[in-house]
């Protein structure tokens, strides 16, 4: 097997994952679970309502819920408009916690839209309001926002700021995990730790600190596997990241195992089109191993499925994989 089949600058695919990953309990009558909305784990702002005539508070809750549905549907402009309506309603009700909550959701929406400057300003505003309410800098709500600010720095290429932010956040989280506060759920702390490790791994990958990146991805994968009894999109993304970092470390067979596992487990999530990015990446691994037939087959499958699903990210990676295969074949022809 030739180690020169692929350039060290090969472009590995990472599916576009929503950053609207929030964690705020939004209780309603008869609802026992929680809807993930903002940066706050299990932060009860609104009291559970019993069957009664709709109140201004009920209307506020419904407006916020509808804005969240708009985000989930990709209707970001409509979501923004509804959140501004909700903010006015909360201000009229003089709901201090409700206002803070809405600012947090607005910040997450700005992050989702890639408006990092706006998102950071809103997150800082939320933190200031929480400080004013007596929350300490190491409270889980604060640490969740700190992790997101570090993540945004990494997404913008400010890798040193991201590294410092992640180091600080992880240090505080690990201190709390050793002696968890009775007011904070151990599971929530571990989930936030895993999410932060995942994001830190992405920054370390950009910094070419591959061994450390692998350790972060592995730790995050173990936490996700422990906390969730079923396959999640996040766990699949982590397997893909592990495959990529192992490939860059030259651990080709391990990279292949991670990507094959991600593809197999993705079958448990209906319509998970991002698995086609994993297939294209696996095709690049096969190409690295000199397995042209297998590389062509899986990259072609990735292309067909991506085309059918009209998923631009996976289609782009499938095209890239097929292009690398063509370049390799043309190179072999010229060398004959």
TrEMBL record:
GO cellular component: mitochondrial inner membrane
Keywords for this protein: Mitochondrion, Repeat, TPR repeat, Transit peptide
Compartments it resides in: Mitochondrion
Domain of life: Eukaryota
GO biological process annotation, one example: mitochondrial respiratory chain complex III assembly
Pfam hit, one: TPR_12
Gene3D superfamilies reported for this sequence: Tetratricopeptide repeat domain
Family: Belongs to the TTC19 family.
PANTHER family from the UniProt entry: TETRATRICOPEPTIDE REPEAT PROTEIN 19, TETRATRICOPEPTIDE REPEAT PROTEIN 19, MITOCHONDRIAL
Name assigned to this protein: Putative tetratricopeptide repeat protein 19
Lineage of source species: Eukaryota, Metazoa, Ecdysozoa, Arthropoda, Hexapoda
